[in-house]
Amino acid sequence: MNSLNKVIFKNSHRRDNENKSIVNKALTVFIFFIIFGTISTIMGVASYYLTTELIKVNQAPAFINIVLLILINLVINYYVKKNQIRLYRKIF
What we know:
Blueprint: H1 2-12, H2 22-56, H3 62-91
């Protein structure tokens, strides 16, 4: 089992030492900007609609509470998953 884990971890690492052409690097950056732009646009539109709906019911400050709850949830989930991975690596 230990040797299987070594093979899986060895094959899962990115190989950055390969020679990449300028076109591949440019396409990678272009795709990153498309994905980042799409996510940013979706978050901006969702935030705008959420705040306008909260303003209608006089609960605009609740937007900050919602964002903080989402951030706290993400941080807790991140650390739980990180510790699960550490525990898994210790066992095997």
